[in-house]
Amino acid sequence: MSFLGNVIWLLFGGFVAGMGYILGGLATCLTIVGIPFGIQSIKLGIATLTPFGREIVVRPESGGFLEALFNILWAVLFGWEIAVAHLVHAAILALTIVGLPFASQHLKLIPLALFPFGKELR
């Protein structure tokens, strides 16, 4: 079921969204200061490409001061816009019964979009 869900997800916008995150991450990596944020954007793009059958987990080695600082900077600069976009898409998709599984995938991506440092999708 997750394979079929991922194929439908990719056909109806997941590919475009994932590539947008990846291209934005590559552009952010052009500056030395932006490399950590670009890497997280690329990670979010890869997670957006195939969200079905995956779950967000906290890495065991996470929890440092620098990671918390980067999460705060990410949330203020980029994360809230991405989270609101996922929330709006989830609300629109939840209007139909067919869209409910896709809405739940958007809701699953919100915590990763807000605070990506120290988390990954497995």
Automatic annotation (TrEMBL):
<dbReference type="InterPro" id="IPR005185">
    <property type="entry name" value="YccF"/>
</dbReference>
<feature type="transmembrane region" description="Helical">
    <location>
        <begin position="7"/>
        <end position="35"/>
    </location>
</feature>
<dbReference type="InterPro" id="IPR052937">
    <property type="entry name" value="Inner_membrane_protein"/>
</dbReference>
<keyword id="KW-0472">Membrane</keyword>
<feature type="domain" description="Inner membrane component">
    <location>
        <begin position="4"/>
        <end position="54"/>
    </location>
</feature>
<keyword id="KW-0812">Transmembrane</keyword>
<keyword id="KW-1133">Transmembrane helix</keyword>
<feature type="transmembrane region" description="Helical">
    <location>
        <begin position="72"/>
        <end position="100"/>
    </location>
</feature>
<dbReference type="Pfam" id="PF03733">
    <property type="entry name" value="YccF"/>
</dbReference>
<dbReference type="InterPro" id="IPR031308">
    <property type="entry name" value="UCP028777"/>
</dbReference>
<protein>
    <submittedName>
        <fullName>Membrane protein</fullName>
    </submittedName>
</protein>
<dbReference type="GO" id="GO:0005886">
    <property type="term" value="C:plasma membrane"/>
</dbReference>
<feature type="domain" description="Inner membrane component">
    <location>
        <begin position="69"/>
        <end position="119"/>
    </location>
</feature>
